[in-house]
Amino acid sequence: MSDELAGLRIRDLRVVFDGFPAVDGVSLDVRPGDIRFLIGPNGAGKTTLVDAVTGLVKATGSVCFGEQELLGRPVHRIARLGVGRTFQTATVFEELTVLQNLDIAAGAGRGALTLLRRRRGVPESVARALETIGLTGQRDRLAGTLAHGQKQWLEIGMLLVQDVQLLLLDEPVAGMSQDERDATGELLGVVARDRTVVVIEHDMDFLRRYARTVTVMHVGKVLSEGTVAEVQADPKVQEVYLGHAAEPAVQEA
Ligand SMILES: Nc1ncnc2c1ncn2[C@@H]1O[C@H](COP(=O)(O)OP(=O)(O)OP(=O)(O)O)[C@@H](O)[C@H]1O
Hints:
The chain has helices spanning 46-53, 75-80, 98-106, 112-116, 124-132, 148-161, 178-191, 204-210, 228-233, 235-241, and strands at residues 8-17, 20-30, 35-39, 60-65, 68-69, 83-85, 166-170, 196-200, 213-218, 221-226. It is of the alpha/beta class.
């Protein structure tokens, strides 16, 4: 992959489960360096779309990251092209320290011999990731003892050390305190300085503060797209969210 920032280009993406179109002809562009929020009611197809981009489900259409077509490639190849994701539940190694988690992630593309060699000091990429995710002071703690928010940041750190260029985050602030949300929002801004970020999120307050652009999905399709203000003002979006008091996308910011 070149040093230039790459964007995501999706065309006519379809994922069908037993005849049911979970993603039904989605086309969208996320420009390089964007922080795109993907929202929509439950079952809209958001997670399935991310699953398709990362190779976890079979899909038709086209998904290009930079110049590379991702569809049809196995999961590990897509990861090697610089595409990484988090899941709704953080998947860190709880019995290992923060540093060990990052070290393993950093070594994911390396041979076993390199990994076995004893390290003197912390690799540069790991030290940088620790700083970015704010866990430098926690590096020797077992990941299982971290606060909920810190585990999520560690998971993001594990993507950073793998040099992921497109981050897809599935509800990163679910279950977080307000302080943790604020810190996560700041982290998104730092991460997106030289990467492209897509965030699935239900938290509308978080979206208003940190989204640069928004795609609204509904029943497997793109319902609306634009800035936060544009999608909030879109009557189609208001209609879909009407009666969804827990997801007040149409209220004033
Ligand atoms: N493996 C699967 N097999 C069958 N149907 C599935 C599968 N995964 C998802 N679906 C269905 O596809 C549709 C889209 O689900 P998806 O999880 O992508 O929605 P979502 O927008 O991420 O929802 P949520 O906000 O609840 O996470 C839903 O109707 C869901 O039941």
